[in-house]
Automatic annotation (TrEMBL):
Pathway entry: Amino-acid degradation; L-threonine degradation via propanoate pathway; propanoate from L-threonine: step 1/4; Amino-acid biosynthesis; L-isoleucine biosynthesis; 2-oxobutanoate from L-threonine: step 1/1
Entry cofactors: pyridoxal 5'-phosphate
Taxonomic source organism: Streptomyces nogalater
Stretches assigned to coiled coil: none
EC number: 4.3.1.19
Name under which the protein is recorded: L-threonine dehydratase catabolic TdcB
Length: 409
């Protein structure tokens, strides 16, 4: 791919990334690189996880935000900074500003998860809730910047931000000198662009693979068109990479230096998040799990050793619960069934006995007796079951049919 633009490659260099690293010394953590036995066996080569989910504020965003704000002129710092974000960037800007003694105002959507809002405030930012979607929040932040003179801190479309994110690439090369492939999630492209600048300057043989959610994959059509293209309605559970248009600055870098952009589905993201939790014992948000999702869907496509960047771990507990259940369902380890039975004493106990004999773990039972759809002597039961996989789900279905039950859904 080659989409060099005047604003891209000349704007961010290896020296910029090295300078950003000096600036971040003592501020950002050098996050761990953890091996994954399961993924290594799947890919057939060593796979390592770069744990930016364990970074301060829970994601890589602190790196770019700090470098951008630290580079402001004194008069710009005095005017304060403003940002718009539903989570990770908000927290990165908040902590960076606090460390540098700069007042930060962060606009967040009205429906932003309360833990993320609270964390942003705790890091020292003034939080303003505005709009139902990020585009409305972004517009409010830009209007605030124009009205007050505060400096708008873009989450990915600025050379200083990209240089800061590129320090992840320097760490990877030092922690895994034999690396052949780096897999990284992509929204606007700042992290992938920064890693590509650093890595390709030192190791042009390393393959860089970007990963986007299928419902928010703005890069494939943009690269095909040779310019940033906007998606009408980007939709994915992975809010960290739910971006409708590539940044102008990272776009040229990605087109020149990133070797491939792949997409993954929602089921893939759920399964990857579940794997990170169960096998790696790491809490990772859906966007951060996207590189793992790519490895799970096409393990033969990556030459090892592979480093997958877990970009963040700021997942709302409510979403985590939903995603884990979705991931278990995608793997055939969670089953929801609805059936009718005769409403008589012991009927529910008999049903549960059938499931127990089939070694199913009942998570939840909903028992409805009064409904216009039901006959006088009927009851409807909905069960949520933990199972051992697709074969076990089929076995449960046979056990229920053999016992005389008709499964409605």
């Amino acid at each position: 791919m080659s989409y060099r633009t005047a604003d891209s490659l000349r704007s961010v260099t290896l020296d910029d990334v090295r300078g950003a690293r000096k600036m971040l010394s003592g501020v950002a953590r050098v996050t761990a690189l953890e091996g994954s036995r399961y993924l290594s066996g799947l890919v057939g080569a060593p796979v390592h996880l770069k744990c930016e989910n364990l970074q301060r504020t829970g994601s890589f965003k602190l790196r770019g935000a700090y470098v951008r704000i630290a580079g402001l002129l004194p008069e710009e710092r005095a005017a304060g900074v403003v940002a718009a974000s539903a989570g990770n960037h908000a927290q990165g800007v908040a902590l960076a500003s606090s460390l540098l003694g700069v007042h930060a105002t962060v606009f967040m959507p009205q429906g932003a998860p309360l833990p993320k809002v609270s964390a942003t405030r705790d890091y020292g930012a003034e939080v303003r809730l505005h709009g139902q979607v990020v585009d409305e929040t972004l517009a409010a932040a830009e209007e605030y910047a124009a009205r007050t003179g505060a400096v708008f801190i873009h989450p990915f479309d600025h050379p200083d931000v990209i240089a800061g994110q590129g320090t992840v690439g320097l760490e990877i090369l030092e922690q895994c000198p034999q690396v052949r492939t780096i897999v990284v999630g992509m929204g606007g492209g700042g992290l992938a662009a920064g890693i590509a600048v650093a890595v390709k300057a030192l190791r042009p043989d390393v393959r860089i693979v970007g990963v986007q959610a299928e419902g928010a994959a703005c890069y494939p059509p943009s690269l095909a068109a040779g310019r940033p293209v906007s998606l009408r309605n980007p939709a994915t559970m992975a809010d960290g990479i739910r971006v409708g248009r590539p940044g102008a600055v990272p776009f040229g870098i990605v087109g020149e230096l990133v070797d491939e952009v792949r997409t993954v589905g929602e089921d893939d993201l759920s399964a990857a998040l579940l794997l990170c939790l169960e096998r790696a014992k790491l809490v990772v948000e859906p966007a951060g799990a996207s590189p793992v999702a790519a490895l799970l869907t096409a393990p033969d496509a990556f030459e090892g050793p592979v480093v997958a960047v877990l970009s963040g771990g700021n997942v709302d507990p409510v979403l985590m619960q939903r995603v884990l259940r979705h991931g278990m369902a995608a793997q055939g380890r969670y089953l929801a069934v609805r059936l009718r039975l005769t409403d008589r004493p012991g009927a529910l106990a008999t049903l549960l006995g059938v499931l127990s004999a089939a070694d199913a773990n009942v998570l939840d039972v909903s028992h409805v007796r009064t409904d216009p759809r039901l006959g006088l002597a009927e009851a409807e039961v909905e069960l949520h079951l933990e199972t051992k996989g697709p074969a076990h789900c089929a076995e449960l279905g046979r056990a229920l049919r053999d016992a005389g039950y008709t499964v409605i859904a």
